[in-house]
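For the sake of transparency, this paper describes our internal protein records without simplification. Because each token names a local backbone shape, the row as a whole describes the fold. One such record is reproduced below, unchanged from the form in which we store it:
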Amino acid sequence: MPLSMVQGSQHQQQYPFNQNDAEIQHAVAYFRTLQNDDGGFSNPGSESAMSNTQWMIMALAAAGEDPHDWKKNGHSSIGYLKENADMVTSTTDYERIILALVAAGENPRDFAGRDFVRELKKNSLKENGQFSDFTYTTIWGILALSAAGEDVSKSAAWLKDQQNDDGGFSWVPSGKSDYDDTAVALEALIAAGENPDSRVIKDALEYLKTGLNDDGGFKYFGSSPSNAASDAWVIQALVTCGHDPKGQEWTVNEKNPVGHLLSLQQPDGSFNYTTYVKSNPGYMTVCAVMALLGKPYPIKPQSQVQPEPTVTPTPTATTITSTPTPASLSQQPTPTAATPAVTAETPSTSNDAATVAGFEFLFCCSGLLLVAFTVLLRRNA
């Protein structure tokens, strides 16, 4: 029986959770098992990866931990980022490391001899405000640069123009809406200064309501099952928009996304992807911790770093070196009907090979089984 089924009921009225709650502490203890001797993080039994380490740093900061103090064999998580900074080459690499460094209280304009803010703007930001060639890269570009104190108003305006008639957002311009990308788009727009009472926010929230399953959890799209990543991202979006994810409008059959997410916690502190599927547990647990703590992106550091904003010329072209990922930088397993079988160039070496290995078939429909392989590479970051 999942740990949360035993403990969850006593906390149902305490959302958002705090860092001292048993569920959070149990998850943080699980994080300890994922740190490798080089200071980096991975899924169980895998080598460290920049992506896993960066997500973990954000989760630790959200939980009130100092990532500098997390060391294994004398190596810290921040030291791992510094030693592997040359692996940051793609748009999503830049966006993720900026968010991680800000969350850790580091300066993304001066880390390992590089200015990641300047490089992201130079290499990926177009004149119209779009980052790279996708919607999801723009969503995370807004989150990253807003965390670094940059003006992202032009990018926010571009993102608003990508809203579909149903109120949702897709991972790619003119694509079909999905709930993960819509949730993170909401976080990006609020981070950019959008009024929570604006029409674009209200329409997106109405779209999210259609993704609530009968078990109280959220789907990625279509008829896909409720899963930890979608639960977490929607919870974060609701919190940043001033909504209670346990409120009546987000409850079905007396169940809500917070309760469903808690139901996925396992005895070792990790979170399953779905009720019956354990995949990419490190990342699922990272997502769950931030959401249950009521911490939306960008994660704020314990000690705020406020470097002076710099003005960098904005190029009009970009080179795609990462693979598209619905729900932007997500590493969750992927249903596929919501997006075309499109891939960009070969993933950079900074992608987490363990993520690919961790993908599992999630649906019993034979048609989806055949299609699933077409987006495995696209879902890495």
Summary: The beta strands are 71-72, 75-76. The chain has one domain: 3-379.
